[in-house]
Amino acid sequence: MLDMNQLHEGQSVYVIYRNPHTPTVSSIQEATIALDPMNPGQMSLVLFDYYHPIEEDDAIFSSYEEAEASYDDYFM
């Protein structure tokens, strides 16, 4: 899992995303690291065309395989 110091603008990453409408449903999604236009200087995940602030407990991975292994450990 990547920590916030390893992230840079334009980087493609993978996250374990929980569906906000169905909390028991999670999936692995590709996202992009970008500067948040509403919060200058703050890095965000661009996921489903929305900017999501990056938080300390976000599960961010450099590859789909890493995300899948963590997903399997946690959800299987």
TrEMBL record:
Domain of life (superkingdom): Bacteria
Record-given protein name: Transcriptional regulator
